[in-house]
């Protein structure tokens, strides 16, 4: 029974005497007045709902429409109003649903029943209408706006039909006119040979081709397609290859070389052919970017002014100094250079002479920079990554200091690994200059293998007032000079500390400094990795006192979790009042039962990531009690019913593989 029916229906009364007769008259009169008031209320709600919808306050308008339906389920007014609001928003499916609900509840005798039917039909027609933007929009708009969005990160397969190319002739023609198709081909040691029907059909319109090719005795060589297909618009070509003679790879290059601007040739096959840098540059004259795996590097004899990006990975032995300087002297336009292994440090002093436009230089085994992340109109080197974090012959400190000082006004990111010769004499000379600064340096990472590089890092940090992100490893994070220099920085937002030992007074002092600053501390992110088990970690209490900290990553690289892990999490749960993001990285360890539950009363935590070999069911269930948790990422095994339970109560839940 609806509210309106309940209010306006006349109750049955026994008519045994005049008193009852008088009461029945009163009830009848009151009921008629209630009926009139209900109708008036529905009219006013309808008027207000219309005004709200016209003012784009759709949620409030829908609330009034729902109130009308509650007052009288058998009236068409509420359904018509709700459907009208949905249609104003373009939500045709919702409009159809409410109209059909009305048709099932409203009697055919209703004055607006026919109108309700008509609106339902109109909403159905609108919901089923499809506009062919690809065919009807101007070609320029399709090419510049629609197609880049449709095909963004969309790699077609060589033997699978792309549905967009088979909608109509108009669609296919417009797509192909862009010559912007991207294909991926993986045809290594397969059980069955790969067909290339789609790639063959659209070869002339392929811009980007990614291929993994392994030659076998069983099937036809996949590289032979370059002799059969006409890739007239191919500009980007990536090839992972193994099992080939050199002439087989070079023949494929000769078939596509005129149009190539970006070429990436990789192999991990020790028996693979040696494709020389000079050969590639000579046969692909329009190359702008090249990544090449080669076993030797030969001298160049002519200039290649178009090449701006080069990544050169050369076997085991580094490129000799004279060869390296020869290569650089013939590549005057280089902006990005990635070398592996590091060809010593001496060549650093000649970079600016031979490559005056260099912006990014990576000579290390660490993760590199985004090759396009630089300021094009700023002169000088902007990002430098140099060295390896294992014991070897120390790099010459003089060479390293030369390039750093030369580009001190342009460098914004520096990564230094390994060991260097004693820099004391050099640093003493430059310490006399109080105006010397690395004015744009914002990020630095140091993984030192000797104390000389630690001293060098302290010098750089103390001269970099704009530093906001610092990553330190074992030697640097436990060094008084480095931590003291970091303490004096006013803009440091992120600190990454790796291999922190339990007793690390320098690091603890740095954390206490920021704890004393309370909400005035600029420190927002802290990542700590420790690989030594200990029952007592003094610096944990300092972390808990960081009032401005918003993101904390706690990573353990141990075989077993420390026995104090639950109490560590409990201490953090009672502190860190601004914490929003917590990442508990336990690698291949089991997180102790009750550790996660320690955080359930934290008032501000919204994002939680957990990586462990296993997590107890009780800790998983405890996530339901976190007051503000919005996003959970679990890198571990979770029972299906528990994962479904989390999904019902937490807005965003992810389970990822190892």
TrEMBL record:
Keyword Metal-binding: no
Signal peptide range: none
Domain of life where this protein originates: Eukaryota
Residue windows of the TPR repeats: 76-109
Annotated InterPro entries: LRR_dom_sf, TPR-like_helical_dom_sf, TPR_rpt
Keywords of this entry: TPR repeat
Record-given protein name: F-box domain-containing protein
Organism of provenance: Lichtheimia ornata
């Amino acid at each position: 029974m609806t509210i309106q029916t309940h209010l306006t229906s006349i109750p049955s009364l026994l008519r045994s005497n005049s008193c009852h007769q008088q009461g029945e008259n009163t009830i009848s009169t009151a009921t008629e007045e209630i009926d009139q008031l209900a109708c008036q209320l529905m009219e006013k709600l309808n008027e207000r709902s219309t005004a709200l919808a016209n003012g784009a306050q759709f949620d409030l308008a829908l609330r009034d429409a729902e109130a009308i339906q509650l007052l009288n389920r058998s009236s068409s007014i509420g359904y018509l109003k709700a459907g009208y609001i949905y249609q104003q928003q373009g939500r045709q499916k919702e409009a159809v649903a409410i109209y059909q609900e009305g048709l099932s509840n409203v009697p055919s005798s209703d004055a607006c029943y026919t109108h309700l039917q008509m609106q339902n039909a109109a909403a159905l027609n609108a919901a089923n209408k499809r506009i062919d933007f690809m065919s009807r929009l101007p070609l320029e708009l399709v090419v510049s706006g629609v197609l880049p969005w449709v095909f963004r990160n969309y790699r077609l397969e060589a033997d699978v039909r792309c549905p967009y190319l088979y909608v109509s002739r108009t669609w296919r023609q417009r797509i192909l006119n862009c010559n912007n198709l991207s294909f991926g081909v993986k045809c290594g040691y397969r059980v069955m040979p790969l067909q290339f029907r789609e790639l063959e059909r659209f070869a002339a319109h392929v811009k980007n081709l990614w291929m993994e090719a392994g030659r076998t005795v069983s099937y036809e060589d996949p590289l032979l397609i370059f002799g059969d297909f006409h890739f007239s618009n191919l500009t980007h070509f990536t090839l992972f290859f193994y099992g080939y003679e050199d002439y087989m790879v070079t023949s494929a290059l000769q078939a596509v070389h005129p149009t190539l601007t970006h070429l990436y040739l990789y192999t991990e096959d020790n028996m693979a052919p040696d494709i020389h840098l000079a050969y590639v540059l000579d046969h692909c004259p329009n190359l702008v970017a090249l990544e090449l795996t080669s076993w030797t590097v030969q001298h160049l004899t002519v200039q290649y002014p178009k090449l701006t990006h080069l990544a050169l990975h050369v076997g085991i032995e580094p490129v000799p100094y004279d060869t390296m300087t020869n290569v650089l002297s013939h590549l005057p336009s280089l902006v990005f250079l990635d070398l592996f292994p590091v060809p010593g440090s001496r060549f650093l002093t000649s970079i600016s002479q031979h490559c005056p436009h260099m912006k990014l230089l990576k000579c290390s085994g660490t993760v590199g920079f985004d090759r396009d992340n630089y300021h094009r109109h700023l002169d000088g080197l902007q990002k430098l990554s140099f060295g390896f974090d294992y014991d070897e012959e120390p790099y010459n400190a003089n060479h390293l200091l030369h390039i750093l000082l030369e580009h001190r006004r342009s460098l914004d990111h520096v990564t230094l690994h390994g060991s260097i010769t004693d820099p004391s004499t050099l640093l003493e000379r430059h310490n006399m200059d109080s105006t010397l600064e690395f004015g744009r340096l914002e990020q630095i990472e140091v993984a030192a293998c000797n104390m000389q590089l630690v001293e060098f890092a302290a010098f750089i940090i103390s001269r970099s007032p704009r530093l906001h992100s610092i990553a330190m490893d074992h030697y640097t994070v436990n060094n008084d000079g480095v931590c003291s220099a970091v303490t004096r920085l006013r803009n440091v937002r992120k600190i990454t500390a790796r291999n922190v030992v339990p007793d690390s007074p320098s690091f603890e002092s740095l954390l206490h400094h920021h704890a004393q600053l309370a909400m005035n501390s600029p420190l927002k992110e802290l990542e700590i990795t420790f690989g030594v088990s200990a029952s007592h970690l003094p610096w944990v209490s300092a972390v808990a006192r960081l009032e401005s900290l918003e993101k904390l990553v706690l990573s353990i690289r141990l075989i077993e979790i420390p026995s104090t892990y639950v109490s560590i999490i409990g201490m953090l749960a009672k502190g860190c009042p601004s914490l929003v993001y917590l990442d508990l990285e336990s690698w291949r360890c089991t997180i102790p039962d009750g550790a996660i539950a320690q955080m359930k009363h934290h008032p501000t935590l919204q994002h939680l990531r957990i990586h462990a070999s296993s997590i107890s069911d009780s800790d998983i269930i405890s996530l339901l009690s976190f007051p503000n948790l919005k996003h959970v990422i679990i890198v571990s095994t979770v029972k299906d019913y528990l994962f479904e339970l989390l999904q019902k109560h937490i807005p965003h839940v992810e389970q990822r593989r190892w």
